[in-house]
# Entry
Amino acid sequence: MTKKYLQLLLLLAISITAWSQQKEQKAFQAYLYNNEYEVYMRINFYDQDVTIPGQDLYGPLPGYLGKKYNSFCWVITSCKVNNEEEADLQLINDFGSEDLEAKLIRENDTLYTLRQGRGNTIKIPYKGKWRKLPKTLQLIRKK
# Structure
């Protein structure tokens, strides 16, 4: 009887741990990506502790928008979480020559929309040229 009781307690402990880890998933602490444009966002608007690989000079940040297979990025210099559905962002390119305001909107648990606002248009390297991202870009949360 004690063996079954211990197994039940172990199963309960594992279930509680899994549930609490799911509960801790915050809306603006995520890895988001868009396959069509091969871009992604690494964000943590709460702790603002994201570092850009190979660009540690910037230190901890709220996040960045990067390009797959490339070191180019747009740095999120500041953010304001309005609620669990929307955040306002300030971004600069990694040269510091262009900047813009944007909104990141959480549509549901897996779908986000990045809306570019005032400022420059986000451009990314593509086959040796610059490619503009659309003003509204959908991103999917990777679990």
Summary: The longest strand covers residues 73-83.
